[in-house]
Amino acid sequence: xxxxxxxxxxxxxxLLRTDEADDRQPGSFRLPHDEAGHTDENGNSGxxxxxxxxxxxxxxxxxxxxxxxxGVVPEEFSLWGAGPRIVVPALLAQLGGAGLTLALPxxxxxxxxxxxAWVLMGLCALLLGTLAVRRAxxxxxxxxxxxxxxxxxxxxxxxxPIYAAxxxxxxxxxxxxFASWPMLAGPVVAWxxxxxxxxxxxxxxxxxxxxxxxLYATRVNRLWPNPFRKHG
Length: 232
Prior knowledge:
This protein has about 230 residues and is mostly helical. Helix content is about 55%, strand content about 0%.
């Protein structure tokens, strides 16, 4: 039974690393821009620099990815993004895992190390994840208010530092604090939902920032932090 749990943990780690395979495909979620010569409802040309106050931001047409993400249109994204649709189901999965562990602590508890060791590792993961969320939020909020693409701070090592903090730090940290194998279902659920919803957010960013987004997405991983990639 313990070997089965270890296999689950190893599979979770492998699944996270497969996310890097998509990181160098910034155009995969990009929506088509308006063709040359098209004008918006105010009569402005869709070409950059063709009159008006600047480039016209192309309209983001809802796609099948929007339906998979619960029908939320990219223009309606709040500052929270898809976060609640990712974190809430993950926490509910962890709650179910906690119930299983309390009911059957023998097969579902982490018994390879003393409980205090798991708690210590869990608290470290929680602390790091919480600090990462706080730093990322401090960068994101003013950037969104000014209408610019945020690429500073933790956004230099991952395009989604808040999601990464939850999936790689906070949710696993909670599971470790309870020394519960089933509670590792929480970060797995969060990762799966992130994969389903990230396309909608990245489609919006690609249409909004164009080449700036493409260059950024080429340099920085989508989820797995990599401080050793070039950020110039």
